[in-house]
Fold this protein.
Amino acid sequence: MARLLYFGRLSDVTGHAEETRDLPSDVADTAALRRWLDADHAADGALLEASVRLAVNSEIVMDPAPVSNGDEIAFMPPVGGG
Amino acid sequence: MIDITETPFDHAEALAEFTRRVGGAGAVVSFTGLVRGEDGVVSTLHLQAYSPMTERGIEAAVKTAKARWPLIDAHVIHRIGDMAPGEPIVFVAIASAHRRAAFEAADYLMDYLKTDAVFWKKEVSSAGAAWIEPRAEDYQDRARWDAQGG
């Protein structure tokens, strides 16, 4: 199982701030993960946007980076505090 | 020192404590950001962080500032969770021997916090809830430091 986190506006898009899912066998990297979850949540491309970065186990990665069950994967829209 | 906190903080008290701690410094500059009221329209600001990535990023920015300016110490406080208009959301204090380094390092850290720090911000108003992302001006402010070579 992989732990998936959706930050900011993406929690509204997917309906969850986090979920635990069993990754299908054909989802082995971040690009495939984006496509699978975007279709699964009917997110209409929100999870495919280049401005949405992915972090695997708290490290920002570039697509396509390997993912597997056991990982914590965060979908991160543009950040900013203050 | 970096504090990410769900509890409201007293920025005057934080500044007094920081000033005591850096006794002997010639300059202390601080900045406090407050939740804007937007003429009574905004009722709540909600801030999310992703620990420990948020803390690690701020630590790295403080380290960069310390490499770039001769600083004695720095303190960053950032609220998360729900806050009301008028409440402090962010506090940056810098101590240095002289004022210029302290002013510039505080400005640099605020630009980092506005555009690169790992937070997400939601404004709840009478019109509903909206996620707020950095404005073009915030990115331009951040880019000033790259143009200066770092």
